[in-house]
Specification:
By secondary structure, the chain is an all-alpha fold. It has one domain. The protein is built from three helices and no strands. The chain has helices spanning 14-29, 38-54, 63-81. The chain is globular. It starts with 13 loop residues before the first helix and ends with a helix.
Length: 82
């Protein structure tokens, strides 16, 4: 199975979900991610923690290569949407 075919499920609180939705909605219309306050920062920290509990790849010796492949794959997907 290709890594890009795999899925990840994260659990988060409703408050974090709302803050992250707003951050990402703003990011979609702006060229940069703007952290307005500590609520934004805490929501991002908590999602990073949830990802850390879910993913095994950050602990792999091949982590840099995995990131490079993931980045290249998403770049190709982005180019295909234009």
């Amino acid at each position: 199975m290709n890594v890009s075919d795999e899925t990840v499920t994260l659990k988060m609180g409703k408050n974090e979900a709302l803050i992250l939705f707003e951050l990402l909605a703003d990011f979609h219309s702006q060229p940069e991610l703007r952290i307005a306050d500590n609520a934004d920062r805490l929501a991002l920290i908590r999602i990073q923690g949830a990802l850390e509990k879910t993913l095994i790849e950050p602990f792999s010796k091949e982590y840099k290569q995995l990131i490079e492949r993931a980045r290249a794959s998403l770049e190709r997907e982005w180019a295909e949407t234009d």
